[in-house]
Amino acid sequence: HEYKLFDDDFVLAVPRGHELARSKTITEGDIINAPLLLLDEGHCLRDQALSFCKAPRLTGGTSFKAASLRTLTELVSHGMGVTLLPRMAVKQEVQTKNAIKLRELPTRGAKRTIGLAWRKNHPGMAEFTELARLWTKL
């Protein structure tokens, strides 16, 4: 059984000195043509970022792959490229605030869905259902 809790938007993290940090608006083309830093293969956030960027059209290439969001943000802070971050991870992962500028994305569809999922025969089904119900009341 699965229950949608909320959507989590992505933001673009760019080095403070990058042209996208100064641009008035960001387009999908800007992201597609930038050196995009991604998580390693098999990570769901990598797949979600590539889905948003329409992977076959990426022309800027992917310079590096990393195992964690923290590594990605450090690479961005050192001018190695740009990356997409889930909004809920920004406060935790962006430790070098002066070196990184966060930009809103041009598309409202740049998000992921956070949910609660469990087996239908799980003994804690009543508790999970109650947690999902309470979450929607927040």
Write a brief caption for the model.
By secondary structure, the chain is α+β, with helices and mostly antiparallel strands. The chain has helices spanning 19-22, 28-33, 44-53, 69-77, 90-93, 125-136, and strands at 2-15, 38-39, 65-66, 83-86, 100-103, 111-117.
Helix-strand layout with pairing:
Layout (H helix, E strand, L loop, with lengths): L1 E14 L3 H4 L5 H6 L4 E2 L4 H10 L11 E2 L2 H9 L5 E4 L3 H4 L6 E4 L7 E7 L7 H12 L2
Task: Give structural notes.
The protein has 138 residues and is α+β, with helices and mostly antiparallel strands. 33% of the residues lie in helices and 24% in strands. The chain contains six helices and six strands. Strands 1, 4, 5 and 6 form a four-stranded antiparallel sheet that branches. Strands 2-3 form a two-stranded parallel ribbon. Strand 2 (38-39), helix 3 and strand 3 (65-66) form a beta-alpha-beta unit. It starts with a strand and ends with a helix.
Biggest beta sheet summary: 4 strands, antiparallel
N- and C-termini, Cα separation: 21 Å
Estimate percent helicity: 25-40%
Estimate the global geometry from the Cα principal axes: elongated
Low-confidence stretches: 55-60
For this entry, give a set of tags.
6 strands, elongated, two-stranded parallel sheet, alpha+beta, 33% helix, 138 residues
